[in-house]
Amino acid sequence: MNYSYYPGCSLKGSSNAYEESLLAVFETLGVGLDELDDWNCCGATAYAAVDQMKAFAMAARNLALAEATAEGGVSVDLVAPCAGCYMTLLKTQRYLNKHRSVADTIEGALEAGGLHYDGRVRVRHPLDVLVNDIGLERVADAVTRPLQGLRVACYYGCLLVRPFATFDDQHNPTTLDRLMEALGAEPIDWPLKTRCCGGSCCGGPLVGTIREAGLRLISVLLQEARRRDADILVTACPLCQFNLECFQERVGQELGEPVELTVGFFTQILGLALGLDERRLGIQRMLRWRLPELTSVEGGGARVYA
Amino acid sequence: MKPRSRIESGFAEEIAAIPGGERLRECIQCGTCSAVCPLSAYMDYTPRRLIAMTEAGMKDEVLGSFSIWVCAGCYACTTACPKEIPITDMMYALKRTAIREGVHPRRFGTPVLAREFVRSVDRWGRNSESRLAINLYRKTHPRLLLQDYPLAERLRRRGRMRLRRESIRQRAQLRTILRAVEAVPDRAATTGGSPTAGSEGAR
């Protein structure tokens, strides 16, 4: 089965390891991702602070382009790995469906550009595809290097499950935990799964209130994961990954709360369990990557939790 | 509290005019939003107070607050609100109004980031992360660029920071679409439409 694939700007930049590992694991699982031709910025969250309707128009061009890849009124599954893009595309669909004024304006704007959108795109996150389409049994069957003993803090962040996603619970999501269990790893029990990482506070020169607030949010998450003996924190969002990995030193220096933790993409951990080479998973790109020696289990040993 | 200056009677209506914004009037001041907000401790006014102040027409205080820029847009409040008020999107409406009226704090990172981001993606269709970051330093706190240079260099060595310009092919098509949105009359209050967007706007 093939999906239309919307990478977004981060996966082509600072989070290229997310794209590399995603493409590698989907290929290994026999699922194709066809990059949407000439996609543009999703109309990301920062755009909404300047012009919400133009942000909707940005997203809608992508939806229209994706829809045009299928003929005869067939619906299209568009896979968006960045939690920010994923939420923005879902939000645009929601507003198009619920608010006539938005639908009319966007329809007219797309028409001016020679495009049309009928509402036949299903926006999907790769985690949703893995759990609900591919299935955890199939994933577990493909595991060649079970991650027995690896303690994982599954971090969903804010926009992956809130407020528009329907594939998981908004308050206590479990899909990532179940995926990690299927790989043989041990997801830790912790209450900060969906607490904001403060990425938008740290997205530039950090000064004053914003600096203190941003670093504090990072510290709270990392300290709690360490306290519960996590070996790694995994995310499904390029902004969370960047924020939680790159500012660790600063948290130590400025808050006097030194903390070191490997922060990776869930697709990298999945790739390791599938036996893929670290370079294909972009692991050499990470600023810090230290995992405990994993007990190798002869002949598989992955567990499946339905 | 007493308003610092004047009461703008139309302010609440203006913010409530965003799609779904009519729910603002349903607020029961329960404070759930402030309780679940991971950043309310860093705000000058909590989300609950901001809603009450907006309803009361305290425009100057609301638009001049740090709160609207500290808001990370995580939607925790929106998901938890028992009256289903789109609080996060209301925060975005407040940010838009503050940028449009040029009243946000000077050299404050978040609004500058938003404007620079929009300027770049309007023109090229995609965001070039590294270029955006450098621009942001340049326009806010150039000296911090030196301090943060080591991190940038570590990322660059790992192939995570490239200066290449990202762009779509059909830039003209995108421009036509965005212009068509801009041409819709009377939309400024409901969904943005900042006349200074893309220019050297705010003070």
Question: SSE layout and pairings?
Answer:
The complex is a heterodimer of chains A (306) and B (203).
Chain A: E1 2-5, H1 16-28, E2 32-35, H2 45-48, H3 52-67, E3 76-79, H4 83-98, H5 100-112, E4 121-124, H6 126-142, E5 151-154, H7 175-182, E6 186-187, H8 208-227, E7 232-235, H9 238-246, H10 248-255, E8 262-265, H11 266-273
Parallel strand pairs in A: 1-2, 1-3, 3-4, 5-6, 5-7, 7-8
Chain B: H1 11-16, H2 32-36, H3 47-55, H4 59-63, H5 67-70, H6 76-80, H7 87-100, H8 109-124, H9 129-139, H10 142-157, H11 171-182, H12 188-191
Helix pairs in contact in B: 8-9, 9-10
- Given the C-alpha coordinates, what overall shape of chain B results? globular
Instruction: Report the portion of residues of chain A in β strands.
Output: 5-15%
CA gyration radius of chain A, whole angstroms: 20 Å
Average pLDDT for all residues of chain B: 87
Percentage of β-strand residues of chain B:
under 5%
Q: Helix proportion of residues of chain B, in percent?
A: 40-55%
